[in-house]
Specification:
Radius of gyration: 25 Å
Number of strands: 15
Helix content: 40-55%
Shape: globular
Structural class: alpha+beta
Strand content: 5-15%
Number of helices: 22
Largest sheet: 7 strands, antiparallel
Distance between the termini: 34 Å
Length: 644
């Protein structure tokens, strides 16, 4: 099976018009009999055939050469004048069949019934010269039967974020759908960016997504009976023949080893399939945790059946380490915080078991959820040992070493990415430079800690003061009524905790914070030194070992990630017609473990942001410039960015 993160070496030789399509999903899975494109429930079908909606004057913002090579697309095809027309949906590639996928989902813990591809359109499946199958789809190509009250469009800012993060996650070595291109247009839609009634026109923009399949957990929830909590049901309740068809198609096509071994024993085959999905999901979330990345919307409809990262929306890489980091400003209850991601992915796996229970009972699948915990723990610690340069042994204290490092970053407000990256500067004890490098490492850690002003700012209330005061009064006078807020009560408690912390640090000075930070790091570095002494035992050539450790650590601790402010700078420039910063950021993200920033010339004809350019992203207004280093702690204005 092809994997969306494989490093493909296929010779790219196809033109746009000669890509080889084999649209297996539409042949094997039931297709909606209604041809008209209008919002409706779609029973008894996995796809609805529809056409993309054209846009005016499509223009390519950026493309990923390595992603397009998966399709076997030649350089001349990429540079063709028709390229933006094909990959915005204005023209259809020969052999393409366009459709939207029907699925359901549990959103923020509650079953929402039919959802489906409300803005994504399947173009077909391309078979490359290595006989790999790649599904391609357009995100933002217009209305489908699953668009509900939306317009099926995406805009430039969200499309640039999705494009860049898809490629960033791939180059970090994490399984993901790829992004082939980002095409904008002169067509516009109305958006209320700040949800305050101030609507603006934004350019319709389309992203080309590439993956072996975009089937997801929610694809199998179309058979769900009426949910006791929400009163909603899937559109294909009781149609177990379709469930069996979907399972057989998925396993035969994407899990051929399981199909080959167990196709004559259907129950065993389904159980083995489920077990492998659980394993892949556990390994995937480990990879996210280890680079400090949050998905933001880990609903069952956003979980790939192949264990890929899909559906990039309000994602975020952490700057300062915070286990309660919320990247999605709409997640009021904090369901999808950084520390909860493993738990939520496991919960989603349990919902997958329930969704296929008419084909294989849950008493045969759910006991295997323990695999999630086992695989997560083993993969997490193996990954962390590489990040810390512990290559020769596993010790009982390793878990505490990792947790205490995270706790120290949290206590000091230190930068997640940069603290991990700087670890490789320390050689093993016994090396000539160990003592001096230990001092340098401590200084580097202290330089990555937040200032007292940044700490105080992070404790400011994010709720309207009048609303907060009302809730406080309610808590004092009628706590039973307050409890009826449900998930919203968690957001209120977070506000109150911030206010309490703000009181505690009201008189804290920068010098006092620095002193406390130094004490915290001294304590942790003492633990790390002790552990490295164990690692150094029996090593005869410390210099050679230090070189090896540094290489391994730097291949597991990225220097460059797609921080929100980096994406925002690229978006702001692109909205002014300058796509060069998007291209530059892509080039940097293609080599995230490198010490060097690629030398990319700016296009003289394009506009350049100044340091006074105002940035607006989902409620934030702040000063942005290209002058910020891509591997430094973020500028102060980045703390105000909100994405939802």
């Amino acid at each position: 099976m092809a994997t969306a993160s494989s490093n493909m070496g296929t010779h790219a030789s196809k033109s746009l018009e000669t890509l080889k399509f084999d649209n297996l999903a539409l042949r094997r899975l039931p297709v909606d009999s209604i041809k008209e494109n209008y919002t409706r429930q779609v029973p008894g079908a996995c796809f609805s055939k529809i056409k993309p909606t054209p846009v005016d004057n499509p223009q390519t913002v950026v493309f990923s050469k390595s992603a397009l090579e998966l399709l076997g697309l030649s350089e001349s095809g990429i540079e063709s004048e028709d390229f933006p027309h094909y990959f915005c949906g204005n023209k259809l590639l020969p052999g393409s069949e366009t459709a939207a996928h029907c699925y359901c989902g549990h959103q923020f813990g509650y079953f929402s019934g039919q959802l489906g591809d409300g803005a994504a359109i399947y173009l077909g499946e391309v078979i490359n010269e290595a006989n790999e199958r790649w599904e391609i789809q357009l995100k933002g190509a217009g209305k489908t039967p699953y668009s509900r009250n939306a317009d099926g469009r995406k805009v430039l800012r969200s499309s640039i974020r999705e494009f860049l993060c898809s490629e960033a996650i791939h180059h970090l070595g994490i399984p993901t759908a790829r992004a082939g291109s980002c095409v904008t247009s002169d067509s516009t839609v109305i958006r209320d960016i700040f949800y305050n009634g101030n609507q603006i026109k934004e350019k319709c923009t389309i992203v080309l997504r590439i993956a072996p399949t975009f089937l997801r957990f929610g694809s199998f929830e179309i058979f769900k009976p009426v949910d006791a909590d929400t009163g909603r049901a899937g559109p294909s309740v009781g149609q177990t023949d379709i469930l069996h068809t979907m399972l057989d198609y998925t396993i035969e096509t994407f899990y051929p080893e399981i199909w080959s071994e167990h196709k004559n024993d259907q129950q065993t085959m389904y159980v083995e399939f489920y077990k492998e999905v659980v394993r892949r999901t556990a390994r995937l979330v480990v990879e996210w945790q280890c680079v400090g990345w949050c998905h933001g919307v880990l609903n069952t409809d956003n979980m790939s059946i192949l264990g890929l990262t899909i559906d990039y929306g309000p994602f975020g890489f952490m700057d300062r380490y915070d286990p309660d980091f919320i990247c999605n400003s709409s997640d009021d209850g904090g369901r999808y915080t950084y520390k909860k991601q493993p738990e939520m992915c496991r919960w989603n796996c349990s919902k997958l078991a329930e969704s296929i229970q008419e084909a294989v009972p849950t008493d045969l699948t759910k006991p295997h959820l323990k695999l999630f915990d086992e695989v997560f723990e083993e993969h997490y610690m193996n990954k962390m040992r590489k990040k810390f340069g512990l290559l020769h042994s596993s010790q009982p204290e390793d878990k505490d070493l990792v947790e205490s490092f995270l706790n120290t970053m949290h206590e000091t407000g230190a930068d997640f990415t940069n603290c991990f990256r700087t670890l490789s500067k320390l050689p093993l004890p016994g090396s000539d430079t160990f003592d001096s490098k230990l001092d340098e490492l401590k200084k580097s850690f202290l330089d990555q800690c937040c200032s007292v002003d940044e700490l105080k700012k992070s404790c400011e209330s994010r709720m309207d003061p009048r609303q907060l005061q009302m809730f406080i009064m309610l808590a004092q006078t009628n706590p039973d009524l307050l409890a009826q807020l449900g998930p919203g009560i968690k957001g209120l408690m977070q506000e109150l905790n911030r206010l309490e912390k703000a009181k505690d640090i009201k008189d804290l000075t920068q010098d006092k914070k620095r002193e406390k930070d130094s004490e915290h790091w001294d304590t942790w570095l003492s633990k790390y030194t002790d552990r490295l002494q164990v690692e150094a035992k029996g090593i005869s050539d410390l210099h050679e070992e230090n070189v090896k450790r540094s290489e391994v650590m730097n291949k597991n601790n990225p220097k460059f990630v797609l921080r929100n402010y980096i994406a925002q700078n690229a978006i702001e420039a692109a909205e002014k017609g300058d796509y060069s910063e998007v291209e530059r950021v892509l080039k940097i993200l293609e080599t995230p473990f490198s010490e060097d920033i690629p030398d990319i010339e700016r296009k003289e004809s394009k506009s350049i942001l100044t340091s006074e350019t105002q940035v607006e992203e989902q409620g934030a207004s702040c000063s942005a410039s290209y002058g910020s280093a891509y591997d430094s702690r973020p500028p102060e204005w980045a703390a105000d960015l909100r994405v939802s």
